[in-house]
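Quick review question:
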């Protein structure tokens, strides 16, 4: 039965915005001791410290309105000319912008004067740190990018990691965290009452791991109609090659031309109720509904069905061998910032960065070679012959500065509004980059006892807004420790994206529709959602949703993953003529970075593209 807001604890005194948990303890100096790392001297109070802010984060209120005004044809008054002249201005202080500053110093010398302008109130872009303080302990969670897919690293990225002291092998080795799949009772699937008529947790169950499970027995437990259950049983039991007679090339071409759900419809006879289970399975991984993926993309991402192609088993969910910091790639961004502006956190290194408290007042000091200015949205960047003039808005005021060079490390879709004189072809190509919205909500709860009792560390929730939920602990690196055995406060990560309405067809319209939904939801809507899931899933194991939810940080990313090309939606372009390649062409003293420039939503791509952009500067 649907619970009232009161029953869900919606009125409870948890932080909604700009609240420091356990403020009393912090004031008494009882928060985690930070040895050997700059803990004091911050010009910001704890309540102002961006990583501890809760409520609506990610693309937080105040960060995007200026850019949306430009998008909608609005204009701003000419900026007040500041007496500031730089060698380089970087637009966007995400991983790519920070890397651009690094490579600029390598190419043009350490004395180069650099300004990074960032529209958010924190640096890192998608590399966002969620920091909670509770019962005298600091608990970290991730607000965006977190996996380091090190096996894909170029030599450029490997060198940067080495310079920052990042040992990806150690980060991988010391990661016990396994995306909620490593509980005593293995991975779990949670069916919710609103969608399926009853709340039901099924343990030792993964839709993508038909190889190691008695699927018949598990499917008998699914609260689905009899027809859907028998279709699913038939599907998982099939051992055949539905593409027999086709050459490898023909089979590949076919799998790239049919959507994943259509493939299962046609070759396994699955109906809509059965297929619904797989709809949101890749909302986090790919950032899209299953219907946007080709069969080839779905199967290679680990969705079940390989056994329809002559393989022995339906699929095997593998451990993704990534390296990870305790706050995701925010630690990487922090190491980058520290290397550019050492005074933000003297003594910081890769071995203690997770504990370092950054002095945000040191980010933008006139005497420093590198300055980072937050809450500053660039509205124009124009070539002037010998350099670039850049205008930006900060606190409602518009300002103008000059520079010899400029690297655009922001989303590509915004660049045509900032550089209206770009060639038409390049503007069209930049606008091709419609990013995929993503949602990552960190919820600090009193303990993991309820999950421990159920024998799980997370569950997939096919009927809910966030497709996955998992405990975020077991990453003991960068000075931080939070063991699985610890039964104190712990962040739960809710992960996924907001499904677009089913009647929206084209994939870019799906992203836009999902973005509109995401921005229209209020904090209370997200809060109600996570409380409903926690109550339904963990309530029977003793979780009291009114008592046990301590803080909620919603990291919404309306402009999330870069638009990497999909089989069903994007043609193959000749080398050099793909939209991202046209979009990334240098424009006199301005060059283009960001992972959008690689049409590939990876942290290491953001770095590679920064390297290229700096080396293309005249
Ligand atoms: C939730 C989420 C999870 C992810 N997980 C992973 C992962 O696990 N592994 C992985 O490799 N990748 C992941 N990614 C992809 C991620 O996009 C990249 O890894 C990388 O962080 C992109 O960095 P970037 O600097 O290119 O872009 P961004 O991080 O987007 O940085 C660009 C910055 O420019 C700012 N900006 C935009 N316009 C302006 C303007 N006009 N003025 C000033 N500033 C502006 C933006 O606000 C932003 O802060 C994830 C992304 C999201 C959203």
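Suggested answer, residue by residue:
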């Amino acid at each position: 039965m649907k619970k009232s807001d009161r029953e869900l604890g919606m009125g409870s005194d948890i932080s909604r915005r700009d609240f420091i948990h356990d403020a009393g303890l912090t004031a008494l100096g009882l928060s985690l001791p930070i040895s050997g790392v700059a803990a004091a001297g911050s010009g910001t109070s704890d309540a102002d410290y961006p990583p501890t802010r809760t409520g609506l984060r990610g693309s937080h209120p105040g960060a995007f309105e200026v850019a949306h005004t430009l998008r909608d044809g609005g204009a701003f008054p000419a900026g007040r000319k500041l007496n500031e002249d730089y060698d380089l201005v970087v637009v966007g202080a995400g991983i790519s912008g920070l890397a651009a500053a690094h490579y600029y110093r390598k190419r043009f010398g350490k004395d180069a004067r650099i300004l990074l302008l960032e529209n958010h109130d924190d640096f890192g872009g998608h590399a966002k740190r969620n920091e909670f303080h509770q019962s005298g302990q600091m608990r970290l969670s991730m607000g965006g990018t977190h996996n380091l897919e090190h096996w894909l690293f170029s030599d450029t990225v490997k060198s940067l990691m080495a310079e920052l002291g990042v040992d990806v092998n150690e980060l991988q080795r010391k990661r016990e965290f396994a995306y909620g799949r490593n509980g005593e009772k293995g991975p779990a699937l949670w069916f919710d009452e609103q969608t399926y008529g009853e709340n039901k947790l099924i343990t030792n169950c993964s839709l993508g791991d038909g190889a190691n499970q008695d699927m018949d027995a598990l499917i008998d437990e699914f609260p689905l109609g009899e027809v859907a259950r028998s279709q699913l049983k038939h599907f998982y039991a099939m051992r055949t090659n539905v593409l027999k007679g086709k050459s490898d090339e023909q089979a590949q071409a076919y799998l790239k031309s049919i959507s994943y759900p259509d493939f299962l419809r046609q070759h396994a006879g699955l109906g809509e109720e059965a297929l619904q289970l797989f709809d949101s399975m890749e909302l986090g991984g790919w950032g899209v509904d299953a219907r946007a993926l080709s069969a080839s993309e779905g199967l290679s991402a680990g969705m079940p069905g390989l056994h329809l192609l002559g393989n022995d088993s339906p699929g095997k969910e593998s451990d993704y061998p990534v390296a990870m910091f305790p706050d995701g790639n925010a630690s990487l961004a922090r190491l980058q910032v520290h290397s550019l502006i050492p005074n933000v956190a003297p003594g910081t290194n890769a071995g203690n960065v997770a504990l370092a408290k950054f002095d945000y007042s040191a980010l933008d000091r006139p005497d420093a070679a590198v300055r980072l200015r937050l809450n500053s949205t660039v509205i124009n960047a124009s070539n002037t012959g010998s350099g670039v003039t850049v205008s930006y808005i900060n606190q409602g005021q518009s300002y103008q500065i000059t520079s010899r060079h400029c690297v655009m490390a922001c989303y590509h879709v915004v660049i045509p509004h900032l550089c209206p004189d770009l060639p038409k072809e390049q503007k069209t190509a930049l606008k091709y980059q419609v990013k995929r919205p993503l949602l990552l909500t960190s919820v600090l709860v009193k303990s993991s006892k309820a999950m421990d009792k159920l024998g799980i560390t997370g569950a997939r929730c096919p009927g809910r807004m966030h497709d996955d939920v998992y405990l975020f602990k077991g990453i003991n690196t960068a000075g931080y420790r939070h063991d699985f055995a610890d039964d104190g406060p712990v962040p739960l990560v809710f992960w996924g994206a907001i499904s677009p309405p089913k009647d929206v067809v084209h994939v870019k319209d799906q992203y836009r529709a999902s973005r509109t939904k995401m921005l229209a939801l209020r904090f209370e809507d997200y809060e109600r959602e996570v409380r409903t899931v926690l109550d339904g899933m963990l309530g029977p194991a003793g979780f009291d949703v009114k008592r046990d939810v301590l803080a909620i940080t919603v990291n919404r990313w309306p402009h999330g993953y870069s638009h990497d090309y999909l089989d069903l939606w994007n043609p193959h372009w000749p080398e050099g003529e793909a939209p991202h390649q046209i979009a990334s062409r240098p424009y006199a003293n301005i060059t283009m970075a960001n992972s959008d420039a690689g049409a590939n939503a990876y942290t290491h791509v953001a770095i590679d593209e920064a390297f290229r952009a700096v080396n293309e500067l005249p």
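Why it works: The longest helix spans residues 523-538. DSSP finds 21 helices and 18 strands in the chain.
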